[in-house]
């Protein structure tokens, strides 16, 4: 039992020490930049730029919407962009986590706020997300999204 406990303890230390990328690493900085650039396009309603951040085989899992594919996700965002109100997404400071995925890309975790007008008043919600970024020879795109805690 003592050996089993020591093994779990060692694994926990390794995970917390090496799993999360330091904010100073190149990978963390790259994903932070991609997050900022992608949501700048979102906030500007720039669909041609925004949709370039996703792979064509995108799977988007949403707690209140189920599994969505690329075409549906883009159509849903286009409907949002066509509405007559100001859209804003902001990353909650200090919540960004980046974890490498060997020979694939990175996991991008955090919380963000979205604000919009609903029923004539400003609504602001904070939600959690997890994104899987695929690095295809330096071309980074999101292949999977888990959007939850709505």
TrEMBL record:
SUPFAM superfamilies: NTF2-like (SSF54427). InterPro entries: DUF4440, NTF2-like_dom_sf. Transmembrane segments: none annotated. It holds the Pfam family DUF4440. Residues 31-142 form the DUF4440 domain. This is Nuclear transport factor 2 family protein. The lineage of its organism: Bacteria, Pseudomonadati, Bacteroidota, Cytophagia, Cytophagales.
């Amino acid at each position: 039992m003592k050996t089993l406990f020591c093994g779990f303890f060692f694994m926990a230390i390794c995970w917390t020490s090496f799993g999360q990328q330091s904010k100073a690493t190149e990978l963390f900085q790259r994903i932070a930049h991609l997050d900022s650039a992608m949501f700048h396009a979102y906030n500007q309603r720039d669909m041609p730029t925004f949709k370039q951040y996703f792979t064509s085989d995108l799977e988007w899992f949403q707690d209140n919407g189920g599994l969505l594919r690329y075409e549906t996700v883009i159509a849903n965002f286009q409907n949002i962009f066509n509405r007559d109100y100001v859209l804003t997404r902001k990353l909650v400071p200090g919540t960004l986590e980046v974890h490498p995925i060997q020979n694939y890309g990175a996991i991008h975790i955090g919380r963000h706020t979205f604000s919009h007008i609903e029923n004539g008043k400003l609504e602001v919600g904070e939600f959690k997300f997890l994104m899987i970024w695929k690095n295809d020879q330096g071309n980074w795109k999101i292949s999977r999204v888990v959007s939850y805690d709505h």
